[in-house]
Amino acid sequence: MNATDILIDEEVFRFTGQSRIDTWSLRDHLVSSSARYSRWLVADIHLTMQRIRELADSFPFWQRRKNTGRRPVSERDLMIAFLVRQLFNSTFRQLQALLELLQEYFSLERVPHHTVLSLKNRSARWAHIWQRFHDFVLESLPRRTVVVATDATGFSGRKRPWREVDHGLKATQDWVKTHAAIEVDTFMVLSYSLTSSNVHESQMFADVWDHLPMNVMPRRGRADSA
């Protein structure tokens, strides 16, 4: 299938500063009047899945394949699966159904069972692949000057999110803490490090900055008092 070209007015992507991942928003008059924007909305899912396929095909997985026994699930297929899961915000059971619908489009060798997808997603091997894939995507972007913000937040299976937990309790509980450097204009994660919740931001600041992509040139850094 050939690539699809979509022409969109530049004003569509004027940044308005919301603190969400979908920060590229539209002016009201463009929503109702821009035919190009309308055509882009029609092609949005198609273009996204096309890009998922291109990235998975070009990323070097370095997967070892056994000559005997049951063939392992292709890591290319797993990468496509997990990106599709993020796109549709699906459970692993829903993801299995989605992949069955999209198997021919993505040229999947076979659709993994939802239990296999869940196990692979939380494996140490896949955490390493995610890190490499993140670096791979960032390195494909153009060289640019950026404003970098650094901060940390925690994740766990608890019902109360990080922001609602008392500061004195966070370091004593079993959170996974993410220390990240963000490109302010796009909210893109440029580098990150995962630690336990008792590791202070000041201990990881230098490590996060040392691992910024080579194609970004920080002109200013922002951080809180931590």
List keywords for this structure.
about 230 residues, alpha+beta, 3 domains, four-stranded mixed sheet, about 45% helix
Task: Tell me about this structure.
The chain is of the alpha+beta class and 226 residues long. The chain has three domains: 58 residues, no CATH class; 71 residues, no CATH class; 80 residues, no CATH class. 43% of the residues lie in helices and 16% in strands. It has eight helices and four strands, in the order ααααααβαββαβ. The chain has a four-stranded mixed beta sheet, with helices on one face. α4 crosses α5.
Give a quick precis of the structure.
The chain has eight helices and four strands. With 226 residues, the protein is of the alpha+beta class.
